[in-house]
Amino acid sequence: MVFAHYMLGLTLNHTARDWEDEIRAAKECGIDGFALNTGSQDHWLDEQLSLAYQAAERAGGFVLFISFDFAFEWTVQQVVDLINRFKYSPAQCVVDGRPFVSTFEGPQWAENWPIVRQATGGIFLVPDWASLGPHGVAQKLDIIDGAFSWDAWPKGCNHKMGPDEDHLYLQALQIEKPGIFGTPNNKHKYMMGVSPYFYTNLPQWNKNWYCSSESLWYDRWQQILEVQPDFVEIITWNDYGESSYIYDPHRDDQIVPGADAYVKGHSHDAYRAILPHFIQAYKAGKTKAKPREHLEDVAIAWYRRTPASAGHHGETVWGQGGDALAAHGVKDVISVVAITKEENTVTVTLGDGQPREFQTARGSSYFEIPFDETTLGPVRLQLNGQVTEGPDIHCNCEDKVNFNAVVIQVPAKR
């Protein structure tokens, strides 16, 4: 199954219609459910959880589960009450007959989970304890049913990431150690994280870094097809403050203060255009994304709207904990992913420059087109005679360089 991490804290004024629209959009691209990131301090939590579950029940074929965010303090009773409240909903994600539960961090809370299990009648617990790493998680196998890794971006000062850590998790989850029900831990599941992008600049939370994302969305899906984890979680559906969203905000109050400067005008909706192909391949156990026969060929492109040298770097570092500036690591490129039924041609034109043609393979292909201060203007993406024009690349930085990307697709979204 494929889930998308959903920031419930950004839903203060969400309506039933908002939930219906977002669930419909997720289902259309093959996503099976939302992992509802829930903080104990959100006073609108009860109302929005109810609206979400009701909308998913009406939609059918879409599941939800709570991902407890341990950046907040939780009591055992709070956790038990939330699980018990929704565990019988037809929209609750259930694995092996038990409600699926996850977390964002919280290893310090680990010893409370057996109490929660007893008070809820059983759960299927797949936490994100990435701060422990694979070997640390291996010491907790008697408490959990699986593990989720939040590590979905290249580390500081690295352009790429590989699946090495995912394989370490798989090995850790196979250690000969009985689980909580006395079953061999080859029943422990692995949920692999995939993300399209990362950039955050929120001084109020001491966050200001960019992770290399030029080919990340493509690379990570290729790694998922290689690793074939039990579950996949897209990070994220709607975290605008960290630029990892694949669903655009529809109201200003969905964007955390300070992030509007780099989110507005930077649509990410087109990231979803290639998901049906990759998700279908993953679910079929394929090692390559093959185009779905009933869908059109598709291409997407993402790019930053200014060269890295066009303005002040804003003290943004390259990767979380990185010791170099992002401006020294980011690549000024237009990134293109195409999924075509047969060999084909994708054409990219930047401003008044010469069109660049790229030959696609059958299935998925990735290309990069460099740009600099001398190659500016709108980006045009062409496939099968259809053209989409995206926003200009320019050198007009009013404040500092925006490291977020804009994403376009062809055929254009209908």
TrEMBL record:
This is Aspartyl aminopeptidase. The keyword Hydrolase applies. The lineage of its organism: Eukaryota, Fungi, Dikarya, Ascomycota, Pezizomycotina. Signal peptide: none annotated. It comes from the Eukaryota. Pfam families: Glyco_hydro_71. Keywords: Aminopeptidase, Hydrolase, Protease. GO terms for molecular function: aminopeptidase activity; glucan endo-1,3-alpha-glucosidase activity. InterPro entries: Glyco_hydro_71.
